[in-house]
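Board work, copied verbatim: PilZ domain-containing protein
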Amino acid sequence: MTDDPTPDRAVTRAKRDSVFRTAQVAVPGMPGALTCRVRNISETGTCVDHKGELEQGMLVQIAIGKDEPVAGRVMWAASTLAGIAFAGPKGVPDAPPADPLTPTAGWLAERPDAYRR
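↓ predict structure ↓
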């Protein structure tokens, strides 16, 4: 038995979804926003690529895709990756629809559906 107050990491780690999105990360005192690739996202945070601009402890505003910006804190940073925790529960952004658009005009609209009988 240990006196470690830190709960088991597997219990506290939120489920991550791999995504291919861009994010705008605004850092107070830095001109403009950084454009970063989002590698994965969960309800509590995200992992982004960067070019060394982000440092542990920085407070940021992050806008993923077309979502509104939310406050966050850089929890860890390596030379090209950084983990950003959201200030509150954000939820995973909606993915684009998986269903293809149904054609309404032209020869493709008149073609019978191969999966219908």
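The mean pLDDT is 79.
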